[in-house]
Amino acid sequence: MDVTIYHNPACGTSRNTLEMIRNAGIEPTVIEYLKTPPSRDRLAKMIADAGLTAREAIRDKGTPYADLGLDNPDLSEDQLLDAMLQVPILINRPFVVTPLGTRLSRPSEVVLDILPDTHKGAFTKEDGEQVLDAEGKRIG
After folding, report:
1. Residue range 30-81, pLDDT digits in tens
2. Distance of alpha carbon 1 from alpha carbon 135, whole angstroms
3. What CA–CA distance (Å, rounded) separates 134 from 110?
4. CATH code, residues 4-132
5. What distance in Å separates the CA atoms of residue 113 and residue 73, rounded to the nearest whole number?
6. pLDDT tens-digit profile of 84-133?
7. CA-wise closest residue to 110 among 14, 22, 28
8. How far is CA 124 from CA 46, 96, 116, 128, 133, in A?
9. What mean pLDDT value characterizes the chain?
10. Catalytic annotation, pick one of 3, 5, 8, 11
11. Positive or negative, the Cα torsion across 121, 2, 10, 41?
């Protein structure tokens, strides 16, 4: 299965998502979006395919979001997309694209919705939360 993750290795949610993909027996294409941001068209498509707006896909925590005035509700989708492309840390993460769909995997287990049921046993997130049982079935 062709899977792409827009990844930030410094982010625990992104690391957990990447490991859940690998737990399904898939080695994804990993794009470190801070080094290689998506094109405008690609970013807009990922956001739309995930069923989100640019405002829902922008990251405010730990970013210059407020300093850039991005909390202004009058800003358009285009203006928010422009900001995310100019300052890629504003792109929330991780976005995952598979043939089964596109998701902003927050929380990380959202990625399970777009992966095949091929998990190789239990999976526990970095914080100790168990997501998959010994048979690779989703808990909760």
Report:
1. 999 999 999 999 999 999 999 999 999 999 999 999 999 999 999 999 999 9
2. 21
3. 19
4. 3.40.30.10
5. 31
6. 999 999 999 999 999 999 999 999 999 999 999 898 889 999 999 999 99
7. 14
8. 27, 19, 18, 6, 9
9. 96
10. 11
11. negative
Query: So what's the pLDDT on residue 114?
Result: 97
Q: What percent of the chain has pLDDT over 70?
A: 100
Question: 54 an active-site residue?
Answer: no
- How many residues in the chain? 140
Q: Are 139 and 130 a contacting pair, CB within 8 Å?
A: yes
CA distances 94 to 9, 69, 72, 108, 121, Å, are: 10, 24, 24, 8, 23
Q: Which residue has the tokens 């470190």?
A: 32
pLDDT at 140: 78
